[in-house]
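User: Okay, second chain of the day. Same drill as before: sequence in, structure tokens out.
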Amino acid sequence: MKENEILVLLQKYKEGTLSNEDQDKLDAWYLHKASNSNLQLSDYKLQDSYELLKSKLPVQEESKVIRLWPRIAVAASIALLLGTGIFYFAKPKEQIIQVAVKPQEIAPGGTRGILTLSNGKQIILANISAKDTIAKEGEEVTIKMGANGVITYVINPDADTSKNNPNSFNTLSTPTGGQYNIILADGTKVYLNAVSSIKYPTQFNGDKRLVELQGEAYFEVAKNKNKPFIVKSDNQSIEVLGTHFNVHAYSNESVVKTTLLEGSVAVSFKNQKSILKPGQESNVSDNFTKIKIREVDTDEAIAWKNGRFKFDNADLKTVMRQLERWYGIKVEYRGDVSDVRFSGGTFMNKNLSEVLKVLELSNIKFKVEGRTIIVYP
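Assistant: Same drill. Structure tokens below.
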């Protein structure tokens, strides 16, 4: 795209008026810029791009802030029903809530992704219709878009296998506010969360099935006792034969979490190996000397896959990072919010303003400026 076209898209992005089609164009432009680096696609990079170019655009008038009401809490916690989800808030106290006057609605994310082929070509998946052929990788592999919007790899059994390219890898990436599902060549189903990517071979030759993950994904691994399935993410690897599990491995999160729903997985970290049982979660970090294992609510770990936010005594910054990835916002903190924690949940298909209305009833304040949310204790 030309620079002036990019500037227009960035301006719309800043104002929160970007359409899904324009968002896909902007995602593709960013991925093209980042394709030769190890950068993770994130809203911060787009924000930085905007800041570098915004001097060429008209300056937007800053939103005014008003005081809505002061309120003194009279109980140990406050519950607010939002849809069918309930949030509970700790440490209620007198507070002033600040919001922008008539802020632009920020819509939730949706099904968006970019497929990068082995030759480097990038395909914006929003432009592909159901049941269409997306691409071919040699004579052996056809990549199709299923009727349900899931990418599927189909192996041609009659192809000349001597022509197989062992270095034929594809990468599925999701931008901020995007999720996508894929069925790999072995039948394994992968659900990819926002701001994530998975690199995988177009077909699994050899004695193992190896994929690389950045971000978060839920796996339903096709059983094959003779060919283990291995997921590499950050500083850990996971080996399974056939099972269901979730991996949470974002670069801006201090802990990599692997949550097992059924079957068993072996988690390797710093020359250690631990076997997880269903209902358990492993935590690894550069700050840890060993793998930590605990019992967890697996529904919380895969809530995103089922279209929900769900938190169990989560700290505010953990909550806001999820909102950043899903709504394409940037969050700034003006004060210490480390003691604010949440339990509860709501649906991910709600506009951001509806979620913030819930959070506004805790002992924090928000100021909305375009796509930046400023948080005050």
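Residues 3-56 form one domain.

User: Thanks, on to the next one.
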